[in-house]
């Protein structure tokens, strides 16, 4: 199995086309997949995963891709 190196800073969540993040925000929402159910105060709500600007994954797509 070939181990993939960690992506460059340019390939982090803050530049990914799937992430909704305000300028200079400490976190944003990854919209690569459908919202996930979460339990909050005994209720089920749906939300996208919260990501940090420097997080990364194998699904990265740049703004022009």
For the residues shown, what is the average pLDDT? 88
Helix coverage percent of residues?
Answer: under 10%
Write down the overall geometry. Answer: globular
Number of strands: 5
- How large, in whole angstroms, is the Cα Rg? 14 Å
Which structural class do the helices and strands define?
Answer: mainly beta
Outline the low-pLDDT stretches: none
Ends apart, CA distance between termini: 27 Å
Strand order of the largest sheet: 1-2-5
Care to describe what's here?
This protein is an all-beta fold and 65 residues long. It has a domain at 9-51. It contains no helices and five strands. It has strands spanning 19-20, 28-30, 36-40, 43-47, 50-51. A three-stranded antiparallel beta sheet has the order 1-2-5, with no helix packed on it. A hairpin with a 2-residue loop joins strand 3 and strand 4 (43-47).
In short:
The protein contains no helices and five strands.
Short descriptors:
mainly beta, three-stranded antiparallel β-sheet, 65 residues, two-stranded antiparallel ribbon
Tell me the layout of helices and strands.
Elements (H helix, E strand, L loop, with lengths): L18 E2 L7 E3 L5 E5 L2 E5 L2 E2 L14
Antiparallel strand pairs: 1-2, 2-5, 3-4
